[in-house]
Specification:
The chain is of the alpha+beta class. It is built from 2 helices and 9 strands, in the order βαββββββββα. The structure holds zinc ion.
């Protein structure tokens, strides 16, 4: 099956969400298969032509945030353990960490992402995350962001990360 990846036409972020029509023009546009979208990274709205979108197996695929396959070397620390690993996929809300360290569910860790993903030069972006589940070496993490500013910074970091470190198939 063909999965067409939708990218933001302004910043090329893969994190775009289909949104309800906000104007009469939006509504009219959907009649010719142009659907309104909003980019999570730059917040711009745009329309994308999507044919036969409603006929696809009746499931709502846009509800869950897109997970992008990546390969990002990271280190992490917590009050119990620290170590290193590899992020293997990433969404705006969490990621999968591949590591040999033993982490337990509920543990809060600080992830040190590569400097190239930072908004500012020569700073290491750190992100708090909590361990949601462990399956062998694979650890499911949920990003923690408490304020609008933190959520916004997280969106920028994730968007930048997946652009630099996306695995191609
Ligand atoms: Zn954008």
């Amino acid at each position: 099956m063909a999965t067409t990846k939708t990218l933001c036409p302004f910043c090329e972020s893969p994190f775009v969400t289909r949104v309800p029509p906000a104007s009469l023009m939006d509504t009219l546009a959907t009649l010719i298969s142009l659907h309104p979208f909003q980019c999570e990274a730059c917040k711009k709205r745009f329309r994308i032509k999507q044919q036969g979108g409603q006929s696809s197996s009746g499931q709502d695929q846009r509800r869950k945030s897109l997970r992008v396959p990546v390969q990002i070397p990271v280190t992490f620390e917590s009050n119990e353990v620290s170590g290193e690993g590899m992020l293997t996929d990433m969404s705006l809300y969490g990621c999968t960490l591949d590591t040999k360290q033993n982490l337990r569910s509920g543990l809060v860790i600080k992830l040190n992402l590569p400097a190239s993903t930072a908004g500012k030069p020569n700073s290491t972006p750190q992100q708090l995350a909590t361990v949601m589940g462990v399956n062998g070496n694979r650890v499911g993490l949920k990003f923690l962001a408490y304020s609008f500013q933190e959520r916004d910074a997280l969106t920028q970091t994730v968007t930048k990360s997946v652009k630099i470190f996306a695995r191609d198939k």
